[in-house]
Amino acid sequence: MANLLRQDDDLPSSLKENHQSLVTPQGEPRSTSSESIKAVAVYEVVKGVSALLAATALWSWHTDLDHWLATATASWQQVFGRFMALQVDSAVDIAQQASKNWPLFLLLIFAYASLRFLEAYGLWQDKTWAYWFGVFGYGIFIPLELYYLIVSPFDWFKLVILVLNIIIVMVVYRNMKRKGLI
């Protein structure tokens, strides 16, 4: 038995080094996702955590949300003036709607956060389905964001979101091509 070859003993030395770098000391496959994909995964985690923080705020303050929103909006305007006023007003409107039917909104927020965490895990672990999910998940909103950017008053925030989504689609698409998925 001592003379039996190990599984990678018959590989050329250049392939042995590459094969060994893809396996952890415990013999588990090591993630081969690129740094840019890991950055997208971290962005997904940040979005998921932000959603959970919003859910916590909604759950904690749903009975007194109008007062809290008025205080937060006044504080925002005192510090930042009209900077991002459209986004603040939009967030206030959404939060007021959420307070009226907060259990449903909590469920939707948790579902959204779960999708963000699932995609982050898949991208970090270099899963094929996560690449496709990322391209379609971000790509589907690009035409809508372009439409709203064109038909509504110019908004820097919308432009930044559009550009960020385009960059993410390009990064994920480039990595899909590199891996031979498309």
List the keywords.
182 residues, mainly alpha
SSE layout and pairings?
Layout: H1 13-21, H2 35-61, H3 65-80, H4 85-100, H5 102-124, H6 128-139, H7 142-151, H8 156-179
Helix pairs in contact: 2-5, 3-4, 4-5, 5-6, 6-8, 7-8
Gyration radius from CA atoms, angstroms:
23 Å
N-to-C CA distance? 44 Å
Q: Describe the global form.
A: globular
Average pLDDT, rounded to a whole number, is: 78
Describe the main β-sheet briefly.
Answer: none
Order of helical and strand elements = HHHHHHHH
Q: Tally of extended strands?
A: 0
Ranges where pLDDT stays below 50 over 5 or more residues in a row are 1-12, 14-22
Tell me roughly what share of residues is in helical segments.
over 70%
Give the helix tally.
8
Beta-strand percentage?
A: under 5%
Structural class: mainly alpha
What does this structure look like?
This protein has helices spanning 13-21, 35-61, 65-80, 85-100, 102-124, 128-139, 142-151, 156-179. With 182 residues, it is mainly alpha-helical. Helix 3 runs antiparallel to helix 4, helix 4 crosses helix 5 and helix 6 packs antiparallel against helix 8 (156-179). The two termini are 44 Å apart.
Briefly say what this structure is.
The protein is mostly helical. It is 75% helix and 0% strand.
